[in-house]
């Protein structure tokens, strides 16, 4: 599925049992709700594709990997229902990635903020460059990383999650993310990253797909009822995004 570039794109290619999903948006690869839905649908479709064993998730360009939620859409929210609907897009995406029986490799070439960190945490194996710093900036705009918290805490633990959340103005280094378990591998530049991603994807695709499916279940064991929890968190975010504090902060971030 592909959308127009002004609203972001989601493209999927399949070769040798490896599916590559690439998302793009002119605003630092941020996500509008329709794009979140499209990416969720891509994972759901690939989940049922017997010709796919491994999925590589990447974003376009050489700048940011993902800037999280679209500030333009956040500013357009006028009711709690609209807010809940927007944030539930991240909930549905993370749930689809968790439920996908295929191993998901994340190719993280640049910085990630907010929801982008949640998407990284929902991957099973991540390869990043030494430019891929991360930040949870939600508190600085009057909300919080409520929806993505289950995935991030599952990957890096509550203590590291709390540190990121309570330091919304601080970038955490790729080395920090690697030490905490968010990144599996670190590489110096994009060429070496691409080579490592290709090699790891090919190696995984050569393994018994049934074994990979069973391993995926084990990796996400003891993460029950996330969807309901994340939707409840989306309701909280949807209410907070209407506050004057948040509206003012978002306008400042746009400048």
Task: Produce a short descriptive summary.
With 255 residues, this protein is an alpha/beta fold. It has 11 helices and 8 strands. This is Enoyl-CoA hydratase.
Arrangement of strands in the largest sheet: 1-2-3-4-6-8
CATH architecture verdict: Alpha-Beta Complex
Helix content: 40-55%
Distance between the termini: 32 Å
User: What is the helix tally?
Assistant: 11
Q: How would you name the CATH homologous superfamily?
A: 2-enoyl-CoA Hydratase, Chain A, domain 1
Written as H for each helix and E for each strand, in order along the chain, the element string is: EEHEHHEEHEEHHHEHHHH
Determine the structural class based on helices, strands and strand pairing. Answer: alpha/beta
Write down the CATH topology. Answer: 2-enoyl-CoA Hydratase, Chain A, domain 1
- Tally of separate domains: 1
CATH class: Alpha Beta
Number of strands: 8
Question: How would you sum up this structure, described in words?
Answer:
The protein is α/β, with parallel strands linked by helices. It has a single domain, classed as 2-enoyl-CoA Hydratase, Chain A, domain 1 (Alpha-Beta Complex). Helix content is 49%, strand content 15%. It is built from eleven helices and eight strands. The strands form two sheets. A six-stranded mixed sheet has the order 1-2-3-4-6-8, with helices on both faces. β2, α1 and β3 form a beta-alpha-beta unit. The radius of gyration is 17 Å and the shape is globular. The two termini are 32 Å apart. Belongs to the enoyl-CoA hydratase/isomerase family. This is Enoyl-CoA hydratase. InterPro entries: ClpP/crotonase-like_dom_sf, Enoyl-CoA_hydra/iso, Enoyl-CoA_Hydratase/Isomerase. Pfam families: ECH_1.
């Amino acid at each position: 599925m592909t959308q127009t570039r002004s609203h972001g794109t989601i493209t999927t290619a399949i070769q040798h049992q490896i599916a590559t999903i690439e998302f793009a948006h002119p605003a630092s690869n941020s996500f509008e709700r329709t794009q979140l839905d499209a990416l969720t649908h891509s994972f759901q479709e690939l989940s049922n594709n017997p010709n796919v064993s491994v999925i590589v998730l990447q974003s376009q360009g050489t700048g940011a990997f993902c800037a999280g939620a679209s500030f333009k859409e956040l500013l357009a929210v006028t009711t709690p229902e609209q807010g809940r609907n927007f944030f539930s897009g991240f909930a549905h995406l993370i749930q689809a990635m968790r439920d996908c029986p295929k191993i998901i490799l994340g190719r993280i070439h640049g910085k990630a903020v907010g929801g982008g960190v949640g998407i990284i945490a929902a991957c099973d194996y991540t390869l990043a460059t030494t430019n891929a710093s991360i930040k949870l900036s939600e508190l600085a705009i009057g909300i919080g990383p409520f929806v993505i918290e289950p995935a991030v805490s599952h990957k890096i633990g509550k203590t590291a999650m709390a540190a990121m959340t309570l330091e919304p103005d601080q970038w955490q280094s790729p080395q920090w993310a690697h030490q905490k378990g968010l990144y599996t591998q670190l590489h110096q530049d994009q060429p070496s990253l691409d080579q490592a991603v290709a090699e790891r994807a090919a190696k995984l695709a050569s393994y018994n797909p049934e074994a990979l499916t069973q391993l995926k279940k084990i990796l996400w064991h003891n993460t029950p009822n996330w969807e309901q929890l994340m939707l409840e968190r989306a309701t909280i975010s949807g209410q907070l995004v209407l506050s004057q504090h948040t509206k003012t902060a978002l306008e400042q971030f746009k400048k």
